[in-house]
Design brief:
Strand content: 15-25%
Distance between the termini: 87 Å
Number of helices: 7
Shape: elongated
Number of strands: 12
Strand order of the largest sheet: 1-2-3
Helix content: 25-40%
Largest sheet: 3 strands, antiparallel
Structural class: alpha+beta
Order of helices and strands: HEEEEEEEEEHHHEEEHHH
């Protein structure tokens, strides 16, 4: 029954194909010969027609016979034969994978250079070598949170636009790494070696006040990295008031408590208890007790620029 249905379908396809061929010959096409239906296609590489039997008899093959076993250096070969028509089909057997031993390091890595290592196939003795990088190295086409952290550091130091802080180590990130390496006197190869990444972390000196704050206006303070001479500038002295929330408020509450003023638990919320504590401190310092922690109050709480938290 299935053969009759398949024959009917193929007959329809053949009729349509033959009808189309009256106007133009297109490939692939169907062709009937000796009771068998073939799919005929033109191989543009060889310039020959290829015939594929679609319907005639169903091949019934015996088991594969292996005439050449595959190894890790060469393919194998096998065949099987149709028990109906006697046609024999041959095919290659894929090579086996190498059985690698452990890696042997031939050149050690450093914190700013790659190493070399090799391993050997236990069967055929083939030796494979590769370059490998010290742990923590980031380079072109790497991706992930480590790359994003690197990009944020490069952005903070002015080497990379914020639009490229995306966790993808692309050409712009490589250029930014090269610029940083050039600034601090390293070989500018665009690879973020452990040495490069370590040097991206600033080692700052003490804060220096470049503009003293007034009571109502914050001042300016700076500090310089001893590694790359990068200078960080920020306001010195905060203005905090009731209803505000954040780490600066928490620092204010901790400092008031250290000085003996009851500002409540250091929860980071500038509530009424914190406001009353600020008023008490202002009164003792001779300030207008308005309950607002102006820059002058902030500086009185943290007398030196070195100990004052960032506003």
């Amino acid at each position: 029954m299935h053969k009759k249905i398949l024959a009917a379908v193929l007959a329809v396809i053949l009729c349509l194909t033959l009808a189309a061929s009256a106007f133009a010959v297109t490939f692939p096409t169907l062709y009937e010969k000796d009771g068998n239906v073939y799919l005929v296609d033109y191989n543009y590489e060889t310039g020959k027609l290829e015939w594929t039997l679609l319907y005639g008899h169903y091949h019934k093959f015996n088991q594969w016979v292996v005439t050449r076993m595959p190894t890790c250096t060469s393919t194998g070969l096998r065949y099987h034969t149709c028990l109906t028509c006697g046609k024999t089909y041959w095919e290659d057997i894929d090579r086996l994978p190498h059985s690698w031993g452990g890696w042997t390091v031939t050149v050690e890595t450093t914190d700013h250079s790659a190493g070399q290592r090799q391993h050997t196939c236990r069967v055929c003795g083939t030796v494979e070598s590769e370059t490998f990088y010290p742990a923590g190295t980031l380079k072109l086409y790497d991706c992930g949170e480590e790359v994003k952290a690197l990009q944020m550091q490069l952005h903070d130091q002015g080497f990379l636009d914020s639009g490229y802080v995306d966790g993808q180590f692309g050409p712009k990130t490589k250029e930014a790494v090269e610029s940083f390496q050039t600034r601090i006197g390293l070989t500018a190869n665009g690879i973020a070696w452990p040495q490069t990444i370590d040097l991206l972390h600033h080692v700052f000196g003490e804060w220096t006040v470049t503009r003293e704050p007034s009571y109502y206006e914050p001042g300016i303070r700076t500090r310089t990295c001893s590694r790359c001479s990068f200078t960080e500038t920020e306001p010195y002295g905060a203005t905090l008031r009731q209803g505000m929330y954040g780490d600066e408020v928490r620092q204010l509450q901790i400092r008031l408590k250290e000085l003996g003023y009851s500002a409540g638990s250091p929860d980071g919320f500038y509530g009424d208890t914190t406001r009353r504590a600020v008023r008490s401190f202002q009164t003792d310092q001779g300030f207008d007790p308005d309950g607002i922690a102006w820059p002058g109050v902030w500086v009185a709480l943290f007398p030196t620029a070195a100990e004052a938290p960032a506003p």
